[in-house]
Amino acid sequence: MLDLAHINRKKLETLIEINTLINSNYEDIRGLLTRIIESATRLTEGEASSLILVNPEDNLLYFEIALGEKGADVKRFALKSGEGIAGWVYEKNRSLIVNDVESDNRFSPEISEKVKYPAKSMLAVPMRLKERCVGVIEILNKRESRNFTDEDLQWLEIFATQAAIAIENARSFQKVKEEFSSLHEQMQFEKGYHVFIGESKVIKEKLEIAKKAAATDSSVLLLGESGTGKELFAEQIHLNSTRREMPFIRVNCPSLSESLLESELFGHVKGAYTDAISDRKGRFELADGGTIFLDEIGDLPLSVQAKLLRVLQQKTVEPVGSSSTINVDVRIIAATNKNIEQEVKEGRFRTDLFYRLNVLPVYIPPLRERPGDIPLLAAYFLEEFSKETKKQIDGFTEEAMETLLSYSWPGNVRELQNAVERAVVVSRGNYITPEALILKSISEPEEDRYKNRNLKDAINIFKAYYVKKTLDRNGWNQTKAAMEMGIQRTYLSRLLKELSIQKD
Predict the structure, then answer these.
(1) CB pairs under 8 A, 24+ apart, for 493-499?
(2) Do the beta carbons of residue 119 and residue 154 sit within 8 Å?
(3) N or C: more exposed end of the chain, with fewer CB within 10 A?
(4) Which of 451, 459, 464 is closest to 398 using CA atoms?
(5) What percent of the chain is predicted at pLDDT more than 70?
(6) What span, in angstroms and rounded, lies between the C-alpha atoms of 15 and 162?
(7) How far apart are CA 405 and CA 399, in angstroms?
(8) Which of 208, 190, 192 is nearest to 200 (CA)?
């Protein structure tokens, strides 16, 4: 046991720091485990280290985190139970201290040859959850060619325990989070709402504006190209408002003829016209107390625009064929892909209605202006369509993702959704290839990746490629990648969030 009277103050402080992290950070489990391994390596004065986890599906040991000069190479391999010193520790669930690795009969020259890292001495301890070994931590080569000591081994066992606790906590947290998210999504889906996907800086800024708009009852006008997700923003405004428990009624204006549109919006009484065999409530009356979403309002006929203006001004509707009015309390969210101000100038849209609707305008940027959202959206659509088609597709090849990122997406998110669905249907392998996307004939050539983009977008596309390639080369060790790029690790972490860069 460690002699508490002579315990190293620095080691104790590090242990307290790790314990604090374990109880406060369940989101970034990989970052937490890296901190634990970095601390263990530093305090045992090792040159390199690995955290190896067992995959219960195939019972193979995978190098989850590897620090040191050959970290990226080490992470390419997997071990069988009992293979090499780490495999022996896992199989026997026992710690080992080996100060002459090559003379130990458990040493595997084949593994050493593969990773091309000479192991002279090694500490290896099991990571236990309720006495069950779930992985191994190993430290290679004590600095200055010294031997590892029993005290080093005891410290490593403590860190292995912390790592196991961190994994268990994070897995429990993620399970609860996923169950809650799934339940929340299911509830929203049953009510007709969509899952909102978007992590880019620009889309987060727009979502923040939308949430602020939700706190009021003022009319909102959503502007942007077709397929950008204006309806999803309308949903978010409603779901973040005090009206969230009341109806959210959608109306697609161009899909209805002028006569039918008036009846749909305001209702009609029996006998109002030939087919009016009974009274019918309009969408505004159905939305009473809640929100009505008028999609593509720029296509509203002028006659209907006049009646809509009266609803906004007087908060009443008059059903077709009736001379009486009905009071309604409805929040209006409108959307259009047209240049609505130009429509006003040319007399196709009423000026007074425009000013009534344009109280809180929100512009939704096209997909080409937020490339950081493309991988997230593509992954989401892939999962959805893989379930629908009952196909096992694990992701996109690097070339396919490059194709998605370099394409200009004139049809925006809707076009991306269609492209992924098409790729899932035609794909024959476990990964989506560029050919399966069927975008090559209309995609931008490689040399024109930055064509028709402003400088900021082009720089962000380059930065995303450059940062990801550097991280891949360094086994996703952010400290080493930051050093190679000549930037601070904190700045790299910020780039990962801003550019939505994720490990494949």
Answers:
(1) 495/463, 495/467, 496/467, 497/199, 498/200, 498/201, 498/372, 499/200, 499/372, 499/460, 499/463, 499/464, 499/467
(2) no
(3) N
(4) 464
(5) 83
(6) 9
(7) 10
(8) 208
Q: Give the per-residue pLDDT at 221.
A: 95
> Within 10 A of 245 (CB to CB), how many other CB atoms are there?
9
Residue 405 parent element (H or E) = helix 398-406
What structural domains does the chain harbor?
Answer: 4-175 (3.30.450.40), 201-365 (3.40.50.300), 369-498 (1.10.8.60)
pTM of the model: 0.54
Work out the number of other CB atoms within 10 angstroms of the CB of residue 504: 13
| Residues 481-484: contacts with CB under 8 Å, at least 24 apart | none
Distance CA 39, CA 177 (A): 29
- Counted residue by residue, the chain has a size of 504
Residue whose entry in the numeric block shows the structure tokens 């983009």: 453
pLDDT(419) > 80: yes
CA–CA distance, 243 with 171 (Å, rounded to integer): 36
Pair 377, 483: CB distance under 8 Å? no
245's CB contacts (< 8 A; 6+ apart) are none
Please state whether beta strands 248-252 and 78-80 pair in parallel, antiparallel, or not at all (unpaired): unpaired
Dig out the tokens for 217 from the structure: 């009852």
Q: Measure the CA–CA gap between 91 and 82, rounded to whole angstroms.
A: 5
The whole-number pLDDT of residue 218 equals 92
Measured distance CA(423)–CA(436) in Å, rounded = 5
CA distances from 414 to 140, 389, 402 (A): 51, 19, 19
Q: Tokens 């620009």 belong to which residue? A: 202
User: In the structure, what pLDDT confidence band is assigned to residue 237 with cuts at 50, 70 and 90?
Assistant: very high
Reduce the DSSP state of residue 291 to 3 states and report it: strand
The pLDDT score that the predictor gives to residue 88 is 92
DSSP 349-365: S-HHHHHHHTTEEEE--
The residues facing 135 across adjacent strands are 53, 127
d(CA 56, CA 7): 37
Determine the Cα–Cα distance for residues 219 and 331; give it in Å rounded to an integer: 6
Tokens of 438: 């069927």
Helix orientation angle between 201-214 and 230-239, rounded to the nearest 10 degrees: 40
What residues have CB less than 8 Å from 15, skipping those under 6 apart? 158, 159, 162
